[in-house]
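Hello everyone,

My group is preparing for a crystallization screen and wants a predicted model to guide construct design. The compound we'll soak is zinc ion. Before spending weeks at the bench, it would help to have a computed complex in hand. I've included the protein sequence and the ligand's SMILES below. Output in C-alpha coordinate form would be ideal because that's what our pipeline reads.
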Amino acid sequence: MRLAVVAQAPTPAANRQNEAGAAPRVERPQLVSSRRQLVKAGLAAGLCLCCPPPLAALAEESAAAAAPAAAPVVAAPPPPQPWGYSCLTGPESWGGACATVGFQSPIALNFDASHPPPGDGALQPLLPKFPRYIKQGVTVKNTGHGTMMVAMPEGVDYELAGQRHRLLQFHFHTPSEHTVDGRWLAMEAHLVHKNLETGNLAVLGVFIEAGEGWTPNPVIAEALRSGPMASGGETLLQRPISLRTLLPNARAADGSRPYVNYSGSLTTPPCSTGVDWYVFLDPLQVDAEQIVEFMYYAGSGSRPGINNRPPQPLAGRSIRYFAA
Ligand SMILES: [Zn+2]
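Reply:
Good plan to model first. Here are the C-alpha coordinates for the complex, ready for your pipeline.
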Protein backbone atom coordinates (compact mmCIF):
# COMPACT_ATOMS: atom_id res chain seq x y z
CA MET A 1 0.00 0.00 0.00
CA ARG A 2 1.31 3.41 -0.94
CA LEU A 3 1.20 6.05 1.74
CA ALA A 4 2.87 8.86 -0.08
CA VAL A 5 0.96 11.74 1.35
CA VAL A 6 -0.33 12.10 4.86
CA ALA A 7 -2.48 15.17 4.69
CA GLN A 8 -3.74 18.09 2.71
CA ALA A 9 -2.05 21.39 3.43
CA PRO A 10 -4.26 24.19 4.68
CA THR A 11 -6.25 26.12 2.14
CA PRO A 12 -5.12 29.63 1.23
CA ALA A 13 -8.06 30.93 3.25
CA ALA A 14 -6.84 29.05 6.31
CA ASN A 15 -3.35 30.44 5.75
CA ARG A 16 -4.69 33.96 5.65
CA GLN A 17 -6.48 33.35 8.92
CA ASN A 18 -3.27 32.07 10.52
CA GLU A 19 -1.24 35.02 9.34
CA ALA A 20 -3.85 37.35 10.74
CA GLY A 21 -3.53 35.64 14.10
CA ALA A 22 -7.04 34.17 14.21
CA ALA A 23 -7.41 30.64 15.50
CA PRO A 24 -7.90 28.16 12.67
CA ARG A 25 -10.29 25.29 13.16
CA VAL A 26 -8.46 22.03 13.60
CA GLU A 27 -10.16 18.71 13.08
CA ARG A 28 -9.59 16.39 16.02
CA PRO A 29 -7.80 13.22 14.96
CA GLN A 30 -9.78 10.04 15.50
CA LEU A 31 -8.55 7.54 18.05
CA VAL A 32 -6.55 4.70 16.64
CA SER A 33 -5.97 1.30 18.14
CA SER A 34 -2.60 0.35 16.71
CA ARG A 35 0.64 1.91 15.61
CA ARG A 36 0.08 0.84 12.02
CA GLN A 37 -3.35 2.45 12.01
CA LEU A 38 -1.65 5.61 13.11
CA VAL A 39 0.10 6.01 9.79
CA LYS A 40 -2.99 4.94 7.88
CA ALA A 41 -5.00 7.60 9.63
CA GLY A 42 -2.42 10.22 8.75
CA LEU A 43 -2.08 11.38 12.31
CA ALA A 44 1.35 12.71 11.50
CA ALA A 45 -0.48 15.76 10.26
CA GLY A 46 -2.96 15.96 13.12
CA LEU A 47 -1.55 19.34 13.97
CA CYS A 48 -2.60 20.79 17.27
CA LEU A 49 -1.53 24.38 16.95
CA CYS A 50 -4.29 26.07 18.83
CA CYS A 51 -5.56 23.82 21.59
CA PRO A 52 -7.03 25.64 24.60
CA PRO A 53 -4.46 26.00 27.36
CA PRO A 54 -4.61 23.29 29.99
CA LEU A 55 -6.46 23.98 33.24
CA ALA A 56 -3.21 24.28 35.20
CA ALA A 57 -2.02 27.10 32.96
CA LEU A 58 -5.39 28.84 33.23
CA ALA A 59 -5.25 28.53 37.01
CA GLU A 60 -1.78 30.09 37.06
CA GLU A 61 -2.97 32.92 34.84
CA SER A 62 -5.95 33.74 37.05
CA ALA A 63 -3.82 33.54 40.22
CA ALA A 64 -1.37 36.01 38.69
CA ALA A 65 -4.22 38.31 37.69
CA ALA A 66 -5.65 38.25 41.21
CA ALA A 67 -2.33 38.89 42.99
CA PRO A 68 -1.72 42.42 44.37
CA ALA A 69 0.68 44.55 42.37
CA ALA A 70 4.25 44.12 43.60
CA ALA A 71 6.71 46.95 44.20
CA PRO A 72 8.60 47.88 41.03
CA VAL A 73 11.89 46.02 40.70
CA VAL A 74 14.64 46.04 38.12
CA ALA A 75 13.55 43.57 35.51
CA ALA A 76 15.80 40.55 35.07
CA PRO A 77 16.40 39.45 31.49
CA PRO A 78 13.60 37.12 30.44
CA PRO A 79 14.52 33.44 30.56
CA PRO A 80 14.88 31.77 27.17
CA GLN A 81 11.46 30.69 25.97
CA PRO A 82 11.05 26.95 25.66
CA TRP A 83 9.97 26.04 22.17
CA GLY A 84 8.55 22.92 20.66
CA TYR A 85 5.55 21.73 18.70
CA SER A 86 2.90 21.43 21.39
CA CYS A 87 -0.16 23.61 21.82
CA LEU A 88 1.63 26.10 24.05
CA THR A 89 5.18 26.01 22.64
CA GLY A 90 4.45 25.50 18.93
CA PRO A 91 5.50 27.54 15.89
CA GLU A 92 2.71 30.10 16.39
CA SER A 93 4.40 31.16 19.63
CA TRP A 94 8.02 31.29 18.45
CA GLY A 95 9.56 34.73 18.81
CA GLY A 96 12.53 36.63 17.41
CA ALA A 97 13.22 36.24 13.72
CA CYS A 98 10.66 33.41 13.58
CA ALA A 99 7.87 35.91 14.20
CA THR A 100 8.93 38.50 11.63
CA VAL A 101 7.79 38.43 8.05
CA GLY A 102 11.01 37.79 6.17
CA PHE A 103 12.41 35.08 4.00
CA GLN A 104 11.42 32.18 6.24
CA SER A 105 11.27 28.44 5.67
CA PRO A 106 9.64 26.09 4.95
CA ILE A 107 7.45 27.19 2.04
CA ALA A 108 4.69 25.64 -0.03
CA LEU A 109 5.92 24.28 -3.36
CA ASN A 110 2.83 24.55 -5.48
CA PHE A 111 3.77 21.94 -8.02
CA ASP A 112 5.24 18.47 -8.03
CA ALA A 113 7.87 16.75 -10.09
CA SER A 114 5.21 15.28 -12.41
CA HIS A 115 3.89 18.71 -13.40
CA PRO A 116 6.94 20.93 -13.20
CA PRO A 117 7.27 24.55 -14.23
CA PRO A 118 9.86 25.46 -16.85
CA GLY A 119 13.38 24.63 -15.72
CA ASP A 120 15.94 27.32 -14.89
CA GLY A 121 18.77 26.84 -17.34
CA ALA A 122 21.24 28.55 -15.03
CA LEU A 123 20.98 25.80 -12.42
CA GLN A 124 23.20 22.77 -12.60
CA PRO A 125 22.70 19.17 -11.44
CA LEU A 126 22.99 18.66 -7.70
CA LEU A 127 25.27 15.72 -7.14
CA PRO A 128 26.33 15.39 -3.49
CA LYS A 129 29.50 13.33 -3.47
CA PHE A 130 29.12 11.62 -0.12
CA PRO A 131 31.86 9.24 1.01
CA ARG A 132 30.81 5.63 0.42
CA TYR A 133 30.65 5.03 4.18
CA ILE A 134 31.16 7.25 7.18
CA LYS A 135 32.54 4.94 9.81
CA GLN A 136 33.85 6.96 12.74
CA GLY A 137 33.24 10.10 14.74
CA VAL A 138 29.51 10.41 14.01
CA THR A 139 27.54 11.52 17.07
CA VAL A 140 23.80 11.37 17.50
CA LYS A 141 22.06 13.73 19.89
CA ASN A 142 18.48 14.02 21.10
CA THR A 143 17.85 17.73 20.49
CA GLY A 144 14.95 17.84 22.92
CA HIS A 145 12.85 19.25 20.07
CA GLY A 146 11.44 16.07 18.59
CA THR A 147 14.36 14.80 16.57
CA MET A 148 17.85 13.39 16.73
CA MET A 149 20.71 15.35 15.20
CA VAL A 150 23.33 13.20 13.54
CA ALA A 151 26.54 15.26 13.55
CA MET A 152 29.32 14.57 11.09
CA PRO A 153 33.01 14.36 11.87
CA GLU A 154 35.23 17.08 10.34
CA GLY A 155 35.92 16.89 6.67
CA VAL A 156 32.81 15.61 4.91
CA ASP A 157 33.41 18.18 2.15
CA TYR A 158 32.36 18.16 -1.48
CA GLU A 159 31.23 20.42 -4.27
CA LEU A 160 27.54 21.27 -4.34
CA ALA A 161 26.02 23.64 -6.90
CA GLY A 162 29.50 24.64 -8.04
CA GLN A 163 30.80 25.60 -4.59
CA ARG A 164 32.65 23.79 -1.83
CA HIS A 165 30.35 22.69 1.02
CA ARG A 166 30.88 20.89 4.32
CA LEU A 167 28.17 18.62 5.69
CA LEU A 168 27.62 19.48 9.36
CA GLN A 169 24.66 17.35 10.43
CA PHE A 170 21.34 15.88 9.37
CA HIS A 171 18.01 15.41 11.12
CA PHE A 172 14.38 14.61 10.35
CA HIS A 173 10.92 16.13 10.58
CA THR A 174 7.49 14.49 10.57
CA PRO A 175 5.39 15.24 8.68
CA SER A 176 7.38 17.08 6.00
CA GLU A 177 7.91 20.82 6.44
CA HIS A 178 7.79 21.87 2.77
CA THR A 179 4.54 20.93 1.09
CA VAL A 180 4.31 19.69 -2.48
CA ASP A 181 1.32 20.63 -4.57
CA GLY A 182 -0.66 21.36 -1.41
CA ARG A 183 0.21 18.21 0.48
CA TRP A 184 2.53 17.09 3.25
CA LEU A 185 4.62 13.98 2.88
CA ALA A 186 5.31 11.58 5.74
CA MET A 187 8.78 12.90 6.65
CA GLU A 188 11.54 15.20 5.45
CA ALA A 189 15.29 14.88 6.00
CA HIS A 190 17.45 18.00 6.26
CA LEU A 191 21.16 17.76 5.54
CA VAL A 192 22.70 20.95 6.87
CA HIS A 193 25.87 22.23 5.18
CA LYS A 194 28.17 25.19 5.48
CA ASN A 195 29.12 26.79 2.19
CA LEU A 196 32.89 27.09 2.63
CA GLU A 197 33.08 29.87 0.05
CA THR A 198 30.27 32.18 1.20
CA GLY A 199 29.90 31.09 4.83
CA ASN A 200 26.13 30.63 4.29
CA LEU A 201 24.28 27.61 5.55
CA ALA A 202 22.84 25.40 2.84
CA VAL A 203 20.22 22.75 3.52
CA LEU A 204 19.50 19.81 1.28
CA GLY A 205 15.90 18.68 1.79
CA VAL A 206 14.76 15.15 1.00
CA PHE A 207 11.07 14.21 1.11
CA ILE A 208 10.28 10.78 2.50
CA GLU A 209 7.18 8.78 1.62
CA ALA A 210 6.13 5.53 3.23
CA GLY A 211 4.58 2.27 2.15
CA GLU A 212 3.80 -0.96 3.95
CA GLY A 213 6.45 -3.54 3.23
CA TRP A 214 8.81 -1.13 1.51
CA THR A 215 12.50 -1.53 2.31
CA PRO A 216 13.55 0.15 5.55
CA ASN A 217 16.11 2.89 5.01
CA PRO A 218 19.45 1.97 6.64
CA VAL A 219 20.37 5.52 7.68
CA ILE A 220 16.99 6.16 9.33
CA ALA A 221 17.24 2.72 10.98
CA GLU A 222 20.66 3.56 12.41
CA ALA A 223 19.52 7.00 13.61
CA LEU A 224 16.56 5.39 15.37
CA ARG A 225 18.70 2.61 16.84
CA SER A 226 21.34 5.02 18.18
CA GLY A 227 19.19 8.06 19.03
CA PRO A 228 19.12 8.59 22.81
CA MET A 229 15.61 8.85 24.27
CA ALA A 230 16.62 11.35 26.96
CA SER A 231 16.44 15.00 25.92
CA GLY A 232 19.99 16.30 25.41
CA GLY A 233 21.44 12.77 25.45
CA GLU A 234 24.33 12.17 23.07
CA THR A 235 26.12 9.06 21.91
CA LEU A 236 28.27 7.75 19.11
CA LEU A 237 26.47 6.29 16.13
CA GLN A 238 26.92 2.54 16.48
CA ARG A 239 27.40 1.43 12.87
CA PRO A 240 28.80 2.96 9.67
CA ILE A 241 26.29 4.79 7.49
CA SER A 242 26.13 5.46 3.77
CA LEU A 243 24.50 8.82 3.13
CA ARG A 244 24.02 7.87 -0.49
CA THR A 245 21.06 5.77 0.69
CA LEU A 246 19.42 8.93 2.01
CA LEU A 247 18.97 10.35 -1.48
CA PRO A 248 16.04 9.62 -3.79
CA ASN A 249 16.72 7.63 -6.94
CA ALA A 250 18.38 9.55 -9.74
CA ARG A 251 16.22 10.50 -12.73
CA ALA A 252 18.96 10.73 -15.34
CA ALA A 253 22.07 8.78 -16.28
CA ASP A 254 24.28 11.60 -14.96
CA GLY A 255 22.78 11.07 -11.49
CA SER A 256 20.72 14.26 -11.46
CA ARG A 257 17.35 14.68 -9.82
CA PRO A 258 14.74 17.46 -10.10
CA TYR A 259 15.04 20.02 -7.32
CA VAL A 260 14.06 23.52 -6.30
CA ASN A 261 16.35 26.23 -5.00
CA TYR A 262 15.35 29.28 -2.99
CA SER A 263 16.62 31.51 -0.19
CA GLY A 264 15.08 30.92 3.25
CA SER A 265 15.81 30.29 6.89
CA LEU A 266 16.33 27.66 9.53
CA THR A 267 12.92 26.09 10.25
CA THR A 268 13.55 26.06 14.01
CA PRO A 269 14.42 28.88 16.41
CA PRO A 270 16.31 31.15 16.01
CA CYS A 271 14.97 30.89 12.38
CA SER A 272 18.11 32.65 11.05
CA THR A 273 17.79 33.78 7.45
CA GLY A 274 20.32 33.63 4.62
CA VAL A 275 20.01 29.87 4.22
CA ASP A 276 20.29 28.40 0.72
CA TRP A 277 17.69 25.68 0.25
CA TYR A 278 17.90 22.82 -2.23
CA VAL A 279 14.89 20.50 -2.04
CA PHE A 280 14.70 17.35 -4.12
CA LEU A 281 11.21 16.80 -5.48
CA ASP A 282 11.30 13.01 -5.92
CA PRO A 283 10.77 11.40 -2.52
CA LEU A 284 12.83 8.70 -0.86
CA GLN A 285 10.69 5.62 -0.20
CA VAL A 286 10.84 3.80 3.13
CA ASP A 287 8.93 1.24 5.19
CA ALA A 288 5.90 2.79 6.93
CA GLU A 289 6.99 1.26 10.23
CA GLN A 290 10.00 3.61 10.29
CA ILE A 291 7.69 6.61 10.10
CA VAL A 292 5.75 5.30 13.07
CA GLU A 293 8.98 4.72 15.00
CA PHE A 294 10.14 8.24 14.27
CA MET A 295 6.78 9.69 15.31
CA TYR A 296 7.17 7.94 18.67
CA TYR A 297 10.70 9.33 18.94
CA ALA A 298 9.29 12.80 18.24
CA GLY A 299 6.78 12.18 21.05
CA SER A 300 9.52 11.16 23.52
CA GLY A 301 8.72 7.46 23.24
CA SER A 302 5.40 7.32 25.03
CA ARG A 303 3.12 8.65 22.31
CA PRO A 304 3.39 9.80 18.69
CA GLY A 305 4.50 13.37 18.16
CA ILE A 306 5.18 15.81 15.34
CA ASN A 307 8.02 18.28 14.74
CA ASN A 308 7.22 20.33 11.67
CA ARG A 309 6.81 24.05 11.12
CA PRO A 310 4.02 24.99 8.68
CA PRO A 311 4.80 26.74 5.36
CA GLN A 312 5.70 30.42 5.67
CA PRO A 313 4.72 33.31 3.35
CA LEU A 314 6.69 33.38 0.11
CA ALA A 315 7.07 37.18 0.46
CA GLY A 316 7.89 37.69 -3.21
CA ARG A 317 10.70 35.20 -3.44
CA SER A 318 11.33 33.33 -6.64
CA ILE A 319 11.66 29.57 -6.57
CA ARG A 320 14.09 28.19 -9.14
CA TYR A 321 13.41 24.75 -10.58
CA PHE A 322 15.95 22.34 -12.00
CA ALA A 323 14.46 19.78 -14.41
CA ALA A 324 16.43 16.51 -14.51
ZN1 LIG B 1 15.21 20.69 9.78
